[in-house]
Specification:
- The chain is about 75% helix and about 5% strand.
- The chain is mainly α.
- It has two domains: about 100 residues, Rna Polymerase Sigma Factor, Chain: A (Orthogonal Bundle); about 80 residues, Arc Repressor Mutant, subunit A, CATH 1.10.10.10.
- Helix 3 packs across helix 5, helix 3 crosses helix 8 and helix 5 runs parallel beside helix 8.
- The longest helix is centred in the N-terminal third of the chain and has 23 residues.
């Protein structure tokens, strides 16, 4: 399998099993520091760790295998291109990758929707204008706070958060991806939502 952006590429070949064994024992933050230093092998390791979760985050928006595959590749190549400016929240690159994949997927979906709309329809432009800098700043603060809270949660809860709440996957899809029961996903997600509502209320001073 190959992750490409234009003429650039990072391939994952026959050494993938050894790369995964490295990933199993490595600290991901340390791996990402190697990526920031230009280490393509470390990049391959992170790719193999998170490719499925990033794909499903894109699929939750696009519902298209081919488009989701392309968005997954775009997300990883964006991480590679911007690696020097990325600051991880917690120990994993997954939150950043899923957020980036969802951003690319939503942009692609909007572009397709605009193609189907009357060219004189300015609703999308009006919506963009409504999201002024003050609202964007508040949203960014809330997002950072949520990421900090999630970084302290068990890994399975972090995965459920990014797959279901950010990636829009169903309980069934997330359960299949994580290898746990539908009921476990539902119960954990219910507790996560209650925790996040409480945290956001504290952030707003309610």
């Amino acid at each position: 399998m190959e992750v490409q952006s234009g003429s650039r590429g990072v391939s994952v070949g026959a050494d993938s099993l050894s790369l995964l064994s490295v990933a199993a024992s490595a600290d991901e933050r340390a791996l990402f520091e190697r990526v920031q230093a230009g280490d393509r092998e470390a990049f391959r390791v992170i790719f193999r760790m998170h490719m499925r979760s990033v794909y499903w985050a894109a699929f939750g928006v696009l519902q298209s295998r081919s488009d989701s595959e392309e968005v997954m590749q775009d997300a990883f190549m964006t991480m590679w291109d911007k690696r020097m400016s990325i600051e991880l929240v917690g120990e994993s690159t997954l939150p950043w990758l899923v957020t980036t994949a969802r951003y690319h997927a939503l942009n692609r979906r909007r572009a397709e929707e605009r193609k189907r709309r009357d060219p004189l329809d300015g609703s999308a432009e009006l919506l963009d204008r409504a999201l002024g800098p003050e609202n964007a700043a508040v949203a960014n603060e809330a997002r950072q706070h949520i990421e900090e809270v999630m970084a302290q949660m068990p890994l399975v809860d972090q995965e459920i958060f990014w797959l279901c709440l950010v990636g829009d996957l169903s309980y069934k899809q997330a359960a299949r991806q994580l290898g746990i029961s539908h009921g476990s996903v539902r119960n954990r997600l219910s507790r996560l939502k209650a925790r996040l509502r409480s945290e956001l209320s504290l952030l707003k001073g309610d």
